[in-house]
Amino acid sequence: MTVTKETLIGDILDHDVETARFFFEIGMHCLGCPHSRGESIEEACAVHGTDADELVAKINDYLAKKQ
Q1: Residue of 9, 19, 11 whose CA lies nearest to 59
Q2: Are 22 and 62 in contact (CB under 8 A)?
Q3: Residue 17: predicted pLDDT
Q4: What 3-state DSSP class applies to 51?
Q5: pLDDT at site 43
Q6: All structural domains of the chain
Q7: Which residues, given as ranges, of the chain have pLDDT below 70?
Q8: Which residues, at least 6 apart from 26, have a Cβ–Cβ distance to it below 8 Å?
Q9: Contact present, 44 and 37 (Cβ < 8 Å)
Q10: How many Å apart are CA 43 and CA 10, to the nearest integer?
Q11: Which alpha helices (H) appear in the chain, and where do they start and end?
Q12: CA-to-CA separations, 49 to 16, 28, 41, 55, in angstroms, rounded
């Protein structure tokens, strides 16, 4: 899986639940909420004041190392 700013959080978590830690790091603690699962990385980062490109890079790096 390659994550982009448009990728939905729910899709990322469904692919690898361990990616939740990256969302917790930006203060997104309500990952079980139906609304958060439907948000894109870009939308979540805008709400939490975080750089979307940086989060995408962290998640993609993590996923690449797991392969």
Answers
A1: 19
A2: yes
A3: 95
A4: coil
A5: 94
A6: 9-66 (1.10.3910)
A7: none
A8: 44, 45, 48, 50, 55
A9: no
A10: 13
A11: 9-15, 20-25, 34-37, 41-48, 52-66
A12: 24, 11, 12, 11
